[in-house]
């Protein structure tokens, strides 16, 4: 599967952005999906995950109640709606896919497929 992330940009604190990750290749419903983020010099950190069917989700504590992950298998896209953004949300955001598990969860090492990343910058 090939993943293409988009939707990043510059936003003021308190604002919103919606990231998209479009997939091509094998049937999208075969993949559990995740969003991760990374800042320079730090490890890639888990943000949110969703199962193959889009019915179950899981979030990092730092984004819970502010971010929403969703998956539309009809258009081969996973989304990350980000509200009430904070400067500490500034990072490169990556989408990831896994076809070995119905729900993959928080570990980046379990996701074999990655998008190219999209920059999110939140100004104070």
Report the major sheet.
Answer: 7 strands, mixed
Secondary structure: helix percent: under 10%
The helix/strand series, from N terminus to C terminus, equals: EEEEEEEEEEE
Count up the helices.
0
Any idea what the radius of gyration is? Answer: 13 Å
Determine the strand fraction and express it as a percent band: over 45%
The average pLDDT score comes to 96
Walk me through what this model shows.
The protein is 0% helix and 49% strand. With 124 residues, the chain is an all-beta fold. Strand 5 and strand 6 form a beta hairpin. It has strands at 2-6, 9-12, 17-24, 32-38, 45-50, 57-59, 67-72, 77-82, 91-98, 113-114, 118-123.
Task: Give the key terms.
124 residues; mainly beta; seven-stranded mixed sheet; 49% strand
Brief summary:
By secondary structure, the chain is mainly β. 0% of the residues lie in helices and 49% in strands. The chain has no helices and eleven strands.
